[in-house]
Structure formats: structure tokens, C-alpha cells
Amino acid sequence: MSCFRCPRCGRRYAQSEGGPLTERWPGPLGLVLYGVLFAERPQDRAASVAANLGHLDPAAIVSEIRLELGRPSQPIRAILPGMRASEADLREFLALVADELDRIAQRPGGG
């Protein structure tokens, strides 16, 4: 396993031998995806995963999700070994989590 840091944006990446470059654990995307590691339809769990991330910095998580969705830099499925959902489903799930975290932050006392 090799680890890298982007000199422009500071994002941390890892790469196993012969594998793609992906976010290094424990990054924001990996923490979000961990909640649906074995889910085949992660979109159904977006609200509960977002609610469980409340102790972290939701603005930083949302920012990282939006950055990845707007300018894809890695295969999401490869961030955590064993992901069962498709790449498209995981990207949709991340968008739903970001939207839910934004809603939570806008509630009184939510962030």
C-alpha cells in the first residue's frame, strides 16, 4: 500500500499494488460509505447514515462529497474493499447523504 497527498488540494489517497488511487482511510467518503459496506441498495440508508455522522464535521463531509461528485477522482466502490452496491448507487447515496446533512444542519440546534 502506498500513500499520497495531493499537493494542490491536500486530499489524502492510497493505492494498493495494481489497484486504483482512492481516498485514504479514514477519509470523509470512507466514513460515510462504511455505514453501507454490505448494502446492495445504500440509498435506502442515507438518512440514518447522515444522522449517525452528527458527531463529525458535517460541513467538511458535505464539501468532500460535493467535490467528488462534481469532479470525480476515484472509483467510489474501491474506497472500501467489499462494497456490494454499484458505482452509480453509491454516488447517488453520497448525494443523498450530503443533502440530508445539509437539512440536519439547517434545523434548530442541528449544527
Structure summarized in a few sentences:
The protein is mainly α. Helices cover 42% and strands 9% of the residues.
Written description of the protein model:
The protein has a three-stranded antiparallel β-sheet with strand order 1-2-3, with no helix packed on it. It is mostly helical and 111 residues long. The chain has four helices and three strands, in the order E-E-E-H-H-H-H. The longest helix is centred in the last third of the chain and has 20 residues, at 87-106. It has one domain (25-106). The chain has helices at residues 28-34, 46-52, 58-70, 87-106, and strands spanning 2-5, 12-15, 22-23. 42% of the residues lie in helices and 9% in strands. It is globular. The mean pLDDT is 93. A hairpin with a 6-residue loop joins strand 2 (12-15) and strand 3 (22-23).
Number of individual domains: 1
DSSP strand tally: 3
Radius of gyration: 14 Å
Instruction: Report the biggest beta sheet as strand number plus sense, adding barrel if it closes.
Output: 3 strands, antiparallel
Discrete helix count: 4
Category from helices, strands and their pairing: mainly alpha
Order of helices and strands: EEEHHHH
Uncertain regions: pLDDT < 50 for 5+ in a row? none
* Strand residue content: 5-15%
Helicity range: 40-55%
Global outline = globular
Mean pLDDT: 93
Kindly report the spatial arrangement of strands forming the biggest sheet: 1-2-3
Distance between the termini: 36 Å
